[in-house]
User: Fold this.
Amino acid sequence: MNPIIAREVARALIADWQRQDERDRMTARLARKEQARHLAPRRRVTAVARRVLAVLGTCSLRPPPSQSGQEPKATS
Assistant:
């Protein structure tokens, strides 16, 4: 094969591979985006639930448990 033609064929193959790689990357990016969009409501619900539980945990009506070895102070 003529060297000039071989070089042009090689360039065409490389360009084809690069286009295929770009298509694969776009497909993967769109798949991740769709997956994130699908999971977004669950993430919001989980975040809100964690915040509510944290707030409820900090304002408990029960007194904190006494540590071992310490007696409660007597009031007079």
